[in-house]
Amino acid sequence: MDKPPISRYPVPALQDLPEDLRARILEVQEKAGFVPNVFLALAHRPAEWRAFMAYHDALLLKDSGSLSKGEREMIIVATSAANHCLYCVVAHGAILRVYEKKPLIAEQIAVNPQKADISPRQRAMLAFAMKVCDESHRVDEADFELLRGHGFDDEDIWDIGAITAFFGLSNRMANLSAMRPNDEFYLLGRVPRNKT
Amino acid sequence: MDKPPISRYPVPALQDLPEDLRARILEVQEKAGFVPNVFLALAHRPAEWRAFMAYHDALLLKDSGSLSKGEREMIIVATSAANHCLYCVVAHGAILRVYEKKPLIAEQIAVNPQKADISPRQRAMLAFAMKVCDESHRVDEADFELLRGHGFDDEDIWDIGAITAFFGLSNRMANLSAMRPNDEFYLLGRVPRNKT
Amino acid sequence: MDKPPISRYPVPALQDLPEDLRARILEVQEKAGFVPNVFLALAHRPAEWRAFMAYHDALLLKDSGSLSKGEREMIIVATSAANHCLYCVVAHGAILRVYEKKPLIAEQIAVNPQKADISPRQRAMLAFAMKVCDESHRVDEADFELLRGHGFDDEDIWDIGAITAFFGLSNRMANLSAMRPNDEFYLLGRVPRNKT
Amino acid sequence: MDKPPISRYPVPALQDLPEDLRARILEVQEKAGFVPNVFLALAHRPAEWRAFMAYHDALLLKDSGSLSKGEREMIIVATSAANHCLYCVVAHGAILRVYEKKPLIAEQIAVNPQKADISPRQRAMLAFAMKVCDESHRVDEADFELLRGHGFDDEDIWDIGAITAFFGLSNRMANLSAMRPNDEFYLLGRVPRNKT
Amino acid sequence: MDKPPISRYPVPALQDLPEDLRARILEVQEKAGFVPNVFLALAHRPAEWRAFMAYHDALLLKDSGSLSKGEREMIIVATSAANHCLYCVVAHGAILRVYEKKPLIAEQIAVNPQKADISPRQRAMLAFAMKVCDESHRVDEADFELLRGHGFDDEDIWDIGAITAFFGLSNRMANLSAMRPNDEFYLLGRVPRNKT
Amino acid sequence: MDKPPISRYPVPALQDLPEDLRARILEVQEKAGFVPNVFLALAHRPAEWRAFMAYHDALLLKDSGSLSKGEREMIIVATSAANHCLYCVVAHGAILRVYEKKPLIAEQIAVNPQKADISPRQRAMLAFAMKVCDESHRVDEADFELLRGHGFDDEDIWDIGAITAFFGLSNRMANLSAMRPNDEFYLLGRVPRNKT
Question: Does this model's pTM top 0.95?
Answer without folding.
Answer: yes
